[in-house]
Amino acid sequence: MKFPSSTFFICILFFFNTVLAQDKPATEFSIDYEKFTLDNGLEVILHVDKSEPIVAVATVMHVGSSREKPGKTGFAHFFEHMSFNDSENVPVGANRKMIPEWGGSRNGGTWSDGTIYYEVVPKDAFEKILWIDSDRFGYMINTVTKAALEREKQVVKNEKRQRVDNAPYGYTDEIIRKNLYPEGHPYSWTVIGSLPDLQAATLEDVKEFYNKYYGAANASLVIAGDIDIPETKKLVKKWFGEIPSGPKVEPLPPMPVSLNKTKSLYFKDNFAKLPELRMVYPTVEGYNKDEYALEVLGQLLSGSRKSPLYKSVVEEKKLAPNVSSYNNSSELAGEFVIRVRANEGVDLDEVKKAVDKGLQDFETHGFSDKELQRIKAELETQLYYGVATVLNKAFQLVQDNEFGGDPGYITKRTKLFQQIGRDDVMRVYNKYIKDKNFVMTSVVPKNSPELAVTGAKEASVWEEKVTAMDASEEVGQGEEAEYEKTPSKYDRSEPPFGETPLFVMPEVWQAKMENGLKVLGIENNELPLVNFTLTFPGGHRLDPENKAGLAVLTADLMNEGTKTKTAAELEEAIGLLGSRISIRGGLEEINVSGNCLSRNFEATIQLVAEMLLQPRWDEQEFNRLKQELITSLKGNEANPRAIASLNFNKLIYGEENSYGVSPEGTLATVANISLPDVKDFYKNLSPNGATFKVVGNIEKARVIDALSSLSEKWTGEKVSIPSEEIINKASAGNLYFIDVPNSKQSVIYIGLPALSAKNEDYTKLNFANEILGGGSSGRLFQTLRIEKGYTYGAYSYIPSREATAPFTISTSVRANATLPSLKIIENMVKDYGPGFTKEDVALTQNKVIKENTRAYESLNAKLGLLSQIDTYGKPDDFINKEQNLLMNMDLEDFKTIINKYIKEGEMTYVVVGDKATQFEEVKKLGKPVIELDIHGNPVKK
């Protein structure tokens, strides 16, 4: 995992990571913490949160891609990957495998200025995580081998192929950086770097980088959660206190840039189907006071339907479904970005003119006090949502300590945001945007260079050629390194578990309104927040023949105003409450979801009622949304993973089944949809059969009272939903190949029809899948990524659906590893049932039971519990019952489920990749191979 810049965290902090103390004025936000510094210079911040029996640990190393040198780019991110391999006192592969098995999660991220490592575990594994985290930090360098180096090179190269080389607009960041920053500037190359640089990395490079930057004095450590402060201090000193301080790392001063002219470039993108324009202005470094006014400026320019860029680009000129603008400040410099992904075939010259007009309108008319008030109201709600998890608290504290010099900097930041006024916004606009030079990119479909802005120069990037696998790409575990262990005054062997925490299902209350609306709730008073979802069964399943996408369009249009409010007025009314309301259509249901401050629940529900009972049905908004949907569908044609997923479902279910067609429909079906169709579909939204689910700081009586008015005005008959259990078996045993020329990776989907989430075996199958593909500890991930280096990730899963859902295996592998990957998966699935052991049973039981302690921490996760109770008819205490079911399953129970549902011989294989190099290769698997186009039609020979 990588973070594009430190602004990733700054944006999280601004929008998500602050506590408003109940007894303080509204401008004083804070998180309680205690800070101390070890003798080796490691700064440690502790935060107590006993709401759940879990602990989060986050370590930031003050080194990112900005510390690299030309010719050795991508090294900070590469070293992050290397750090997750072996260390002196932890078993080989334990970092990636053991933490999930303890019921925890772990990951890391690199951005321009830093690298973070983080974990969340049940509290019984707290000391274990300190053991494993400290060993990665201070005791890993002696274990690095040539084999581990070469294996991890392949993994990182696969990540770059997946995120950059095989993705639409993937090269845009590289083009911008090369042209915005002068040669040699620390931001003039991308975080992930270049493949030739990665391939050239040596063991000596790894050791030099570690010794220079991975000292304790160049890091901050945060521990947040269910901890005891005095005991935690002792444990931190034991596990982290002997790590060397390391050489002094001199801070880099801010290096903002300026442009002496505007640069316009274009790039012909192999995967893009839609033209995209970006305009990037140089701004300021993070923690500069202008950063906060620039953030607000971005919201004012494009963040609402009243904003000038939206009105000019989307509403008036109808050139794109949306427009975005935002500031992105990192440690050394910043960027203000305006981005428009236009509709198919739109000339970007017209987009540029519309952007210029929007900016001119902003200069002329400015903005209203209400718009600024709306942004600040939304901010208050968003700030609370950041403390719903201990990990986000840890992120904030560690980021602000390492880069702001103060773990409690959020108090100052919040005041700065609240104090921003009209003059501040216009000042930064005039200083950084008005009449200033910028870098402009026109990324256009490969065969449509004429859509680029006139006069743009063609940009060049290094692109990998797809070739047959050579010996250097065949990697493996290799032998373990030989070394003398670093001496320690402590026993650094694995500590024992603490007392096992168990998940306790929260109390669920239920009610039924007079109009038939069911109501389910969980009261949770940790924060003054409420999350809710109103669910209507049916969704895409109710779309008429040849009008797939109607449920989605109907839901989308219901967001666009009411009889008494335009879309802009409705958006403003919701925003002034600091609330969020969104109506969305899906595969099996339509959902009205939202969140708000507890004090604004009644006012928010009044707006929900208005949206439900008085839709505006604006024809202009309908036409815009229909075009937006068409644009999205066209964009999917450029996405290899979307192509694979859509065609996999089509093959599993058959194209006559609604589950075989995307809920968004196709270009052909969406073209058939009219506004009268939408009005007719709206009749399916009946309270009789619908459910309102609510979680948060609100008691049952208030919820029922708030819904009473809606219940009195809203009636309807229960809607009949067609049953579709027709499963297409004709595809079983076949391999379907879809050509996306020059793909650097092959996307693989494999599976077969399994069962409904209502089936009593569904939970058992989920348990039985854990060892095969349930996360990074699963065999698919461990073999294809850790052992072979073929992929960035590989998983198996069973979607939760009322209808029969397919057992699914998915991954993206480097192109020339397609056949070896298919063989590995085929054999792994065949051997899974016969090879399942008692040890696998015990491991699954421990993993799932422990995972439950952190799986339902957030309000949305608790809403998910209510959804399972409502949609699949589960009892109020179903988690407790499922835990008991798991603990009573024996080896034969697991084998029975595996043999019943995970049958390799009946699986359908879908491969999306480069035909020129891979089509003949996949034939060697020995399955019938059928070539399809991107829409799933057989290719004529």
Descriptive report:
GO terms for molecular function: metal ion binding; metallopeptidase activity. There is one protein chain. The chain is α+β, with helices and mostly antiparallel strands. The chain has four domains: about 30-250, Metalloenzyme, LuxS/M16 peptidase-like (Cytochrome Bc1 Complex, Chain A, domain 1), CATH 3.30.830.10; about 265-460, Cytochrome Bc1 Complex, Chain A, domain 1; about 510-715, Metalloenzyme, LuxS/M16 peptidase-like (Cytochrome Bc1 Complex, Chain A, domain 1, 2-Layer Sandwich), CATH 3.30.830.10; about 735-930, 2-Layer Sandwich (Cytochrome Bc1 Complex, Chain A, domain 1). The protein has 32 helices and 24 strands. A six-stranded mixed beta sheet has the order 1-2-6-3-5-4, sandwiched between helices. A hairpin with a 4-residue loop joins strand 4 (about 105-110) and strand 5. Helix 1 (about 5-15) packs across helix 13, helix 25 crosses helix 31 (about 890-900) and helix 26 (about 780-785) runs antiparallel to helix 27 (about 820-835). The longest helix has 20 residues, at about 145-165. The protein is globular, with a radius of gyration of 28 Å. The two termini are about 40 Å apart. Mean pLDDT is about 90; it is low at about 1-25.
